[in-house]
Design goal:
The chain is mainly alpha-helical. The protein folds into two domains: 2-12 and 23-60 and 297-429, no CATH class; 61-288, no CATH class. It has 23 helices and no strands. The chain has helices spanning 2-18, 23-40, 45-57, 61-79, 81-91, 98-113, 116-134, 138-155, 160-169, 173-198, 213-219, 228-238, 243-260, 266-275, 285-288, 297-316, 320-333, 335-350, 353-364, 371-380, 382-385, 393-402, 413-429. The longest helix is centred in the middle third of the chain and has 26 residues, at 173-198. The radius of gyration is 22 Å and the shape is globular.
């Protein structure tokens, strides 16, 4: 019966993908399905709800962080920090090394923002426009953007995925980032080499120095002071200040800049923190609109529903058959291949990075790994494999917002090299 329930859930996800329905709707139907399975097992409804609530309780600390991230991304937009970073990065892009610099600039912005979607909507859009003017195939530019935006999504201290894994594994996020930096060094250098070689292709256009960038300059008053909120994130991370206080400091600095440099009223600034930033220039809306606490409600709801699944799975043993299969695989081939296959499996069916992370953690937490090693394994597999699945929102949103073709996933080298290098490292250690 367990297999039929899981197949029914996969069918629900497939139908929602096919008809482009909301993922939250599919997850809610999944909650009803798994709850119904628990009731069929003879578990009373109050106990089923208690199991679901137990799963949510396991990740409750992350919801405050989500709200802080929403405030941070909103006020960074209103203060001009994000546009100023985009303008500065775009000026360093040189035609001869375009793909390498496109990758690196998206890496930088995504590390500071901790959001692949926000990076794609800002730096990703700019680099795609520059690439088109230079005659660079969108296939190449899209691959560099997809790789770059998930560099920071994987290992930024303000990344929702990094925070979720830290909470699930009960590990310190700064120690996780240090471990991720070590494991990513070789894939990062190899990715740079690939994009450098691809970038030597001839470019027939010229840099659009005036396109889009001057519009941002007309909307904001730019000043080096606008870098303070980003600098504070880096400094507080270096000093290992708890991530909540780290973000609060950056939010306060960005709020002051919004009031003093951009001359926004306190009421408008508070609205930005709650509802997100809205550009007074409609043509710049797709590039800089967004953020705010409300923008994180959808992510929070996805994590909440996914975590409730975890509680029901634990209470009913619904995933015990799958867990045993991956445990057997781990005994024969090692933990690294087993976790990679589990992450690939969940990425293909979950359609969402957060749900995939929680499912993979459920399947692999019984492996004989320390919490830090399990956290690194999840970061090196699930976080980077989800964006390679074309029907996952982790991939589709980035490609659609930047105008990249679907085939760009084939040139997202960094996302392939991270799990492959993890397998090589595990093989060498064994």
């Amino acid at each position: 019966m367990e297999n039929r329930v899981l197949l029914a859930f996969c069918l629900i996800l497939f139908l929602f993908i096919l008809f482009q329905g909301p993922l939250l709707g599919a997850l809610f139907l999944g909650f009803l399905l798994f709850s119904g399975y628990a009731l069929c097992q003879g578990i009373p409804l109050p106990q089923v709800l208690a199991m679901a609530w137990k799963g949510v309780q396991g990740v409750r600390t992350i919801f405050l962080v989500f709200l802080l991230i929403g405030m941070l991304t909103g006020v960074w937009r209103s203060s001009g920090t994000i546009p100023y970073l985009v303008v500065l990065s775009a000026h360093f892009i040189h035609p001869a090394y375009f793909l390498l610099l496109a990758f690196l600039s998206n890496c930088l912005i995504s590390f500071l923002l901790g959001s692949s979607f926000a990076t794609a909507a800002t730096m990703g859009v700019i680099t795609m426009k520059i690439g088109l003017n230079l005659g660079i195939p969108p296939l190449y530019t899209g691959g560099a953007i997809l790789s770059g935006v998930y560099f920071g999504d994987r290992m930024s201290p303000v990344s929702t995925s990094a925070m979720l894994i830290s909470v699930l594994t009960n590990t310190d996020i700064y120690r996780n980032i240090r471990n991720m930096a070590r494991s990513a060094l070789v894939p990062f250098l190899c990715t740079c080499a690939v994009y450098l070689l691809l970038g030597f292709r001839s470019a027939s256009g010229t840099l659009p120095a005036e396109d889009g960038l001057h519009s941002l300059a007309a909307l904001y008053t730019f000043s080096p002071w606008l870098l303070l909120p980003a600098f504070s994130i880096l400094l507080c991370s270096f000093l290992r200040i708890p991530i909540r206080y780290n973000m609060v400091i950056s939010i306060c600095l960005a709020a002051l800049l919004t009031l003093l440099i951009q001359n926004m009223s306190p009421g408008e600034m508070l609205e930005t923190m709650i509802w997100g930033y809205r550009s007074p220039l409609p043509e710049l809306g797709p590039m800089i609109n967004g953020g705010g606490m409300v923008s994180m409600l959808r992510v929070g709801a996805i994590v909440c529903l996914s975590a409730s699944y975890a509680g029901i799975f634990d209470g009913t043993g619904l995933l015990d058959g799958l867990k045993e299969k991956f445990l057997e695989l781990a005994r024969h081939w090692g933990e690294a291949p087993a976790i990679t296959l589990a992450a690939l499996f969940t990425s293909l069916i979950a359609c969402n990075q957060s749900f995939s992370i929680i499912l993979t953690h459920q399947l692999c937490r019984a492996f004989h790994l320390s919490p830090e090693k399990l956290a690194l394994a999840l970061e090196d597999t699930t976080v980077v494999l989800s964006p390679l699945v074309p029907w996952s929102i982790a991939c589709a949103v980035v490609l659609d917002s930047t105008g990249s073709p679907k085939s760009s996933v084939f040139l997202a080298c960094y996302l392939y090299l991270i799990p492959l290098w993890g397998l090589v490292r595990a093989r060498r250690k064994k």
